[in-house]
Write a structure and sequence with these properties.
The chain has 11 helices and 11 strands. By secondary structure, the chain is α+β, with helices and mostly antiparallel strands. Strands 1, 2, 3, 4, 5, 6 and 7 form a 7-stranded mixed sheet that branches. Strands 9-10-8-11 form a 4-stranded antiparallel sheet. The longest helix has 23 residues.
Length: 343
């Protein structure tokens, strides 16, 4: 069976979410795909043809790996186990967790491919982990609580980013699809939105690692806590009002709030000259709103407007590669064999 999990764009609230504020993310119609088939032998085979990686892992090795993952410091774990599993380590850990949860993963072969650009801020690794976990659960035991599926898929992100807190927004959005809001105090929530705008995704070039840009905000916080908290609260205001505007189909209002959010992020030094240029080009092309998406420091900018083609043409003239995409209303959850009714 094949399972697709969409990429993710952060529409509002980046960085402020680290400090307990609201963030709004959307799933986009770019996908990671996990294809599961039966194979011979008492092991699971993970194939990553996009990066020419393939590993077969026995049941005994899965048990050893998961025991180490639970007990070791995450950086030390990745350094040590990465020598053996390479880029397949996040998937090996997810498979190990599933094996421990009683999901039948042995005798399976899984191939993971993706049309989501790597390292661009579109949550490629989260989509791959989400597709992988959901596919194995669906093929091996099609019933599991949504929160458990998400947490298992997040193990891949925890390893990929060497951070035990990684993946909460990205995996939740890739799993549920559509529009997802997130706060630390309550977790992720899929929002019911009737009308969804098309998005223009603009590649502004290589991005800094999220760890670097998170560190920049932290430095601002240490140097001037009062000012930084005011900026973070302003981002939160944009997120709260922006979510309401999105639900009401008020895309001009949403766009204005995206510009305000972007200015706050620029003040926190997580934008870049190329991102700032893309914002100005979008404004001149009539975009309702343009802002960075994700950690910033380069990578993807997201724009909305009444004439997406005009925005794309303006970006092309300025040397930026961009394209129009839609919000993916369904995530990997739609592939689960048995689905609980929403509460």
């Amino acid at each position: 069976m094949d399972v697709k999990a969409p990429g993710v764009v952060k529409l509002l609230g980046e960085h402020a979410v680290v400090y307990g504020k609201l963030a709004v993310a959307v799933a986009v119609s770019l996908y990671a795909t996990a294809k599961v088939s039966d194979s011979e032998g008492d092991s699971i085979t993970v194939s990553l043809p996009d990066i020419d990686e393939k590993r077969s892992i026995s049941g005994q090795e899965l048990e050893r790996l998961y025991s180490n993952y639970k007990s070791a410091e995450i950086n030390a774990f990745v350094e040590e186990e990465g020598k053996k599993y390479g880029k397949a380590l996040p998937f090996a850990v997810v498979a190990a967790r599933l094996h421990a949860e009683g999901v039948a993963v042995l005798g399976k072969s899984v191939t993971i491919t993706s049309d989501i650009p790597i390292g661009s801020g579109l949550a490629s690794s989260a989509a791959c982990s989400t597709a992988f976990a959901t596919a194995l659960i669906s093929s091996g035991r099609g019933r599991m609580e949504d929160e458990t599926v998400i947490d298992i898929a997040r193990d891949g992100e925890r390893v990929a980013h060497r951070n035990r807190g990684a993946g909460a927004i990205d995996v939740s959005t890739s799993f549920h699809g559509g529009v997802v809001s997130f706060e630390k105090s309550r977790g992720a929530k899929k929002e019911q939105v009737n009308a969804l705008p098309d998005l223009v995704l603009v590649d502004t070039g290589p991005k800094l690692s999220t760890a670097v840009t998170v560190g920049r905000v932290s430095e601002h916080y240490k140097k001037d806590k009062e000012l930084t908290e005011r900026i973070l609260e302003e981002i939160n205001r944009c997120s709260v009002a922006g979510l309401t505007a999105l639900k009401d189909g008020q895309f001009k209002s949403l766009g204005a709030l995206m510009y305000e959010d972007q200015e706050c992020l620029r003040q926190l030094d997580v934008s870049s000259p190329a991102l700032d240029k893309a914002v100005e080009i979008g404004k001149s092309a009539g975009a309702f709103g343009v802002k960075l998406s994700g950690g910033g420091g380069g990578g993807i900018a997201v724009a909305i407007g009444s004439n997406p083609d005009r925005i794309v043409d303006a970006m092309k003239l300025a040397g930026f590669v961009s394209h129009i995409t839609s919000i993916a209303e369904e995530g990997a959850r739609s592939y689960m064999k048995i689905r609980y009714q929403d509460q």
